[in-house]
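Figure 6 in text form: structure in, sequence out.
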């Protein structure tokens, strides 16, 4: 299997040490999960050699797999625990999903583009990840049958936090989402405390848009 080649493992360990731990990611479970998932399996074959570059990469259909550092930062901000149920909006390649599946009890992931979802599902099968539920559709509406979630992560940019997502957040749960305009966003982390939602911001990011009647419509760039 490609992901088990010694050279690939070495590159992955180096990515974790220099791009993640070296830049302040401290959560050992997050670092271990990212050291265990072969990022090259989540890329089109012609880009596999770039899997451990410090960069986002195209995955087809005009979408991207996020830079490893951003995956690490968002996962650390979400801080999933072993018994948690986590919702992810924007399956994309499935890389972030696979990391979450290593950390949480069950991951629910929603993607709007059928081709990407089919490819991601095939990768989950190859990796033997059996704790992932997938759905095709608009993730901004959440997944009410699976709620409440201890963690919700949105891997596409929105102008604000879609209301269904905060409604589906469990007490104590965290929601991580890039909020801003089409050009740039800030990473927003909401936590449901005893007196309501507490917000913190964790710096600038740049994501593809969350396309939904609850976020960005397609018209501005169609
Ligand atoms: N987390 C992904 C990974 O590890 O490869 C990267 C996600 S990519 C930056 C954003 C994804 O969100 C795209 O695949 C896009 O099709 C998807 N997306 C955009 N709007 C969506 C929506 N309303 N519901 C579900 N998925 C959406």
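Output sequence:
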């Amino acid at each position: 299997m490609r992901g088990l080649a010694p050279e690939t493992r070495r590159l992955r360990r180096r990515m974790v040490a220099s791009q993640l731990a070296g830049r302040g990611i401290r959560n050992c479970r997050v670092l271990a999960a990212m050291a265990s998932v072969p990022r090259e399996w989540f890329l089109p074959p012609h880009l596999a050699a770039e899997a451990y570059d410090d960069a986002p990469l195209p995955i087809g259909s005009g979408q991207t797999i996020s830079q490893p550092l951003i995956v690490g930062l968002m996962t650390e901000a979400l801080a999933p625990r072993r018994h948690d149920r986590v919702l992810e909006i924007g399956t994309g390649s499935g890389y972030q999903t696979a990391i979450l599946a290593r950390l949480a009890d069950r991951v629910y992931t929603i993607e709007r583009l059928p081709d990407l979802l089919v490819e991601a599902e095939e990768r989950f099968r190859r990796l033997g990840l059996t704790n992932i539920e997938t759905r095709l559709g608009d993730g901004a509406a959440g997944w009410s049958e699976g709620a409440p979630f201890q963690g919700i992560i949105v891997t596409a940019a929105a102008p604000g936090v879609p209301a269904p997502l905060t409604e589906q957040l469990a007490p104590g749960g965290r929601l991580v989402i890039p909020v801003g305009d089409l050009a740039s966003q800030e990473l927003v982390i909401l936590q449901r405390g005893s007196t309501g939602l507490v917000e913190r911001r964790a710096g600038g990011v740049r994501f593809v848009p969350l396309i939904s009647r609850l976020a960005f419509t397609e018209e501005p760039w169609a």
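Caption detail: Residues 59, 63-66, 89-90, 92-93, 95-96, 110-113, 116, 138-140, 155-156, 207-208, 210-212 surround S-adenosylmethionine (CB under 6 Å).
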